[in-house]
Amino acid sequence: MSYDDSCPVCRTAEIVCGKWTLLIIRDLAEGRSRFGELERSLRGISPRTLSLRLRALEEEGIVERQTFPEVPPRVEYALTEKGRALVPLIEDMRSYGTRWLGADGDCSSAGPCAPDAVEADAPPAAVAAA
């Protein structure tokens, strides 16, 4: 099967299937966060990977970065309207996981999906297979 630029499912998958992307969106759905807060909530993600994912989401118009002129500088990340439109997709995934996969744990940012035993930058899909 080949990639089709005109297929809305392909285009959406291209964005949301990146490493950690859905978990970053899940966490930002709760409100603005600083880099360190995201890093702590996504236990196992490296700072480099988090930085790259946030930058990619910013380029896609899903996340906005706001820098405050303070010393030291404060940076916060938030979902844009385009990013908030992905939240129902995440809620549907939560419902699916509960109903069909028996995953009934806390799926907030305080309850990371990646266990400590999994490689630090492993994509969340690899976690389910582990």
Short description:
The protein has 130 residues and is mainly alpha-helical. Helix content is 48%, strand content 11%. It has a single domain (8-129), classed as Winged helix-like DNA-binding domain superfamily/Winged helix DNA-binding domain (Arc Repressor Mutant, subunit A), CATH 1.10.10.10.
Q: How does this model look, in words?
A:
There is one protein chain. With 130 residues, the protein is mainly α. It has one domain: Orthogonal Bundle (Arc Repressor Mutant, subunit A), CATH 1.10.10. It has seven helices and three strands. The protein has helices spanning 8-16, 21-28, 35-41, 47-59, 81-84, 87-101, 124-129; strands at 33-34, 63-68, 74-79. A three-stranded antiparallel beta sheet has the order 1-3-2. A hairpin with a 5-residue loop joins strand 2 (63-68) and strand 3 (74-79). The radius of gyration is 15 Å and the shape is globular. The relative contact order is 0.17. Mean pLDDT is 84; it is low at 114-130.
Percent range of helical residues: 40-55%
Helix-strand topology string: HHEHHEEHHH
Q: Strand order of the main beta sheet, please?
A: 1-3-2
Overall number of strands:
3
* Poorly predicted sequence stretches spanning 5 or more consecutive residues: 114-130
Hey, roughly how much beta strand do the residues contain? 5-15%
CATH class wording: Mainly Alpha
Number of domains: 1
Q: What's the tally of helices?
A: 7
CATH homolog superfamily: Winged helix-like DNA-binding domain superfamily/Winged helix DNA-binding domain
Give me the secondary-structure category.
mainly alpha
CATH fold annotation: Arc Repressor Mutant, subunit A
> How does the overall form come out from the CA principal axes?
globular
Under the CATH scheme, the architecture is Orthogonal Bundle
Distance between the termini: 26 Å
Gyration radius (Cα, Å) is: 15 Å
Q: Average pLDDT across residues?
A: 84
Q: What is the makeup of the main sheet? A: 3 strands, antiparallel
